[in-house]
User: Fold this.
Amino acid sequence: MDRSTLAGRLRRPRLWLAVAASAILLVAVLALVGHFGLWADAGFVEYRMPTKVDIPVSIAVAPDGAVWFTIEMSDAIGRLKGGQIDKVRKGSESLEPLGLAADADGSAWFTDSRKRAISHVALDGTITSFDLSTPVTRLGRLAIAPDRSVWFAEPTTVSVTRLKDGVFTRYVVGPREGAGDANVSPFGVAVDARGFVWATLQNGGKLLRISEAGEVAEFELPTRQGGPGDVAVDSRGGVWVLELAANKIARFADGRFAEFVVPTPNAGITALAVAPDGAAWFTETRAHKLGRVKDGAIREFAMPRGDARPVGLAVDRSNNVWYADLSGWIGMLRADRATTN
Assistant:
């Protein structure tokens, strides 16, 4: 350091004291952030899981603002409310807990492969399970219909299944496993305002529609072997499909598909949700980003942490975008940033 520089610094002692004080304050704030497990940056607010080994997977937002989430290899389901995370014990460890949906009363339904059941967690933490009566169970996504029946993808029986009043009704959408047909593995499930059920066949590259009468219609996606995963329905009746293998987001309306290529190659898109403003949101697990399709254009939002791995997604009534991060966080992209162009 030369003398002129040193002299200049010595002539500004108050400025340096202010800078030092600010730095000390920042360190203190970051210490508190680390202590309480809360992080905020560039429109993101994140909550660290209370136990470091907890891996949040799927996420859903209830009408009362509570955020439910599943936890891989845990005997609990999580809930974030009022800035506080708590866990509700459910009696069995989770295995690929992909199906989760919040009910109108603020409770939640979830898939439980280890228990071979579909389960319900009430507001007071009471767990009620409905046995699928299959020796082995693989389950995909889960959705709740306007009549509050529960629909879910059941690859084991190659079915999209309804649970209503304690009774299961299976709609077989392909040959049984081992029958030699590749058009199996139902995964995504959504129900529109009319009660039509939409589902995806991952290996078949198809979108399915099940009418209230139980009639099944198939629609082939434009990209062969695109690996359709999550599905969601917007307020205009458009059906959005996440194409994992193709790195694309598709929308089906008026009998036609439109596809949107994710700008980041091999982004690892995993989850899809539609916001009240009509935007379709998706996670980019490998790219550490959230993506949005709005007015025919895709915008990507870099996560605040370089090790972020967003895998579950939901949007609340105010257009806040919530996500489950495999690295041990529940996060939110605030609506004021999520809705900007």
Q: What stands out?
A: Residues 1-36, 178-182 have pLDDT under 50 and may be disordered. Residues 13-36 form the longest helix (24 residues). The first strand starts at residue 38 and ends at 41. The domain at 40-338 is CATH 2.130.10.10 (Methylamine Dehydrogenase; Chain H).
